Structures are given as structure tokens and as C-alpha cells.
Amino acid sequence: MRYVIVGTGNISNTYVSALGKLAGCELVGAVSRSGRALAAAPDLPIWPSLAAVDRAFDAVILATPNGLHHQGAIAAAELGKHVLTEKPLDIAADAMATMTAACKKAGVTLAVCYQRRTRPDNIAIKRLIDEGTLGQIYAADLSAKFYRDQAYYDSGDYRGGYSLDGGGPFMQQACHNLDIYTWLFGLPQQVVSMLGTFAHDIESEDHGAALLRHANGMIGTVVASTAAKPGFAARLEVHTEKGSFTLTDDVITQWHVDNLDNPAQPGKAYHHDGATSAAVTDTTAHEAIIKDFEQAVEDNREPLAGADSAKLTTELILKIYNSQKPI
Q1: pLDDT in tens, 160-195
Q2: Based on the domain organization, do 87 and 105 belong to the same domain?
């Protein structure tokens, strides 16, 4: 497929690299309202809007700030182009509904780059849970303790704010981890949270915790932070009637489940805590998401991280933001 990237900030470089490694994929150019070139492909043309693109293309990749994803998706749908957006789907319920409806009306595919869903161990755990092999799940404890310095937030006016970023580490850095949580367990019925801003001069939280109760009785906990120096690997610890296991950065690192072999898959571990940089250098999971996106278009099926599934992650984050309890 032929792509136009909308947005030329840091994350666009990841997509340039991923597309360059996939046979048959062509990057036509990019859209930038400021006219900024793609750092990883400076010779490609830049247009001020999707409507101004004067070359043939099939799909867009949205690499704009979180709160602008719906605008790009709607503009692409109006042109009959498929949409792969950087996470999250968007930051507000009405925006997600509008962009999803626009893509469905236009008959184009809408997917989100929640690339951790492509990790083999996450897929293995998802299958076991869906099959009921692990029995009743008692608890799931997610720790996403990352670090960003003040310079990171100062690098963009929107960073750490609500209007475009949509919030702090829950909406931004821990969004991928929360997506795996909702992919595996769905939305909780009850949420209680406490959030604070400790180490940065920003509008939103930089550290917080939430307690979640699901319809099946499962109790979940989530901690998300960009104030946990120097930044730590993300951990998801799950306790079931058959035993317990731990995923560390999407790899099964502990397995204590009765009469069931560890389903961990061989392969390179993935680790990106962003302690010193927000850049993504390992593009293998992005490549996998793009492959799935193209196959979904070809087969006219729901992508691995389609809009109806991906919206649950934003819905969980909004529940966390809206359920804060005073200290």
C-alpha cells in the first residue's frame, strides 16, 4: 500500500523506518501544517493538508498529537483512505465515536498502532484467557513506572496537558500497557484512583494509582508514572485459580501455573522504558501492526487493534481520570 504520514514529529520517524523494511510498502510523503520535513526522509514531499496531496495513495498513518487523531481520520475517510493511527484512538469519547462512524460510513479500515498486541507472549496469554484455561482470574497488577525529564515536557507545548496529550502517563506513556490490560480483561465496573504531580511542571499527573473491580470479581491495580527515576520495565502480574505468571515488557518472566507448560515464545525481548528518550528504535512490532493492517484491508476484516477494541483503553483511562478521590 501507498502511505501518507500525517504529522512529522518524533514518532513519524518510527513509521518511516518500519515502512522501509516492508516489501511493497511505499511512503508517498507527509502532511505538516508547519511545513516541517520528515527527519528520516527529508527529500519526500510535504503538503499542508490531506486534501492537497497530489499523488496517489491508499492509506494514512496519523502521527499527530493524541487529541488530533479524530481530525486526521475524518479527513482521510472523506477521501476514501484507510487509517492507521498512532495510539491512542483519541482522548475523548465523542471524538472516538465520530471518527469511527466516519470510517465505517466511508467503508475504510480504521486501526490503532497498539503494537504490543503483536508480541508472541501477549498473544499466548490472550489465547489462554479467552479459552478459559487459567480458570477464574483473581487479580491483575500492572506497574508502568517510567521516567521523563522536564526537558521532554518542555519540547512540546502540548506535552503533559489535557487538550492535546489528553493527560499524563496514563494517557500517554502507559497507554500501551493499559491496552494489553483491557485486551486481556476488558473494562472494569468500578474504578477508584489517586493522581498527583510531583516531579514536573505540567498540567496533568506524573504519577498515579488506580484500583479496579471487574464484573467477574477480579481486582486489578494500576500504577503509572513518569516520575519514577530512572525508569523501570513494565510488569503485569496475574493471579488465577490455576496459578500465577508475570509479564515483564511483554515477555513471560515467571510462570507458576499448575499442569500447564509455560507458553513463552523464543525471541528478542522488547524493552522501552523511555528513561532517557521517547524515541522508538525497535520497529519490529510496528512492522507487524502494518502487516496486519494491510491484511485486514485485503480480507475486509477487523484489524488486530481495531477501533471498537482500542477505544476500551481510552475509556479505561477516562474512568481513571474521572474517579479521583481527594486525599
Answers
A1: 999 999 999 999 999 999 999 999 999 999 999 999
A2: yes
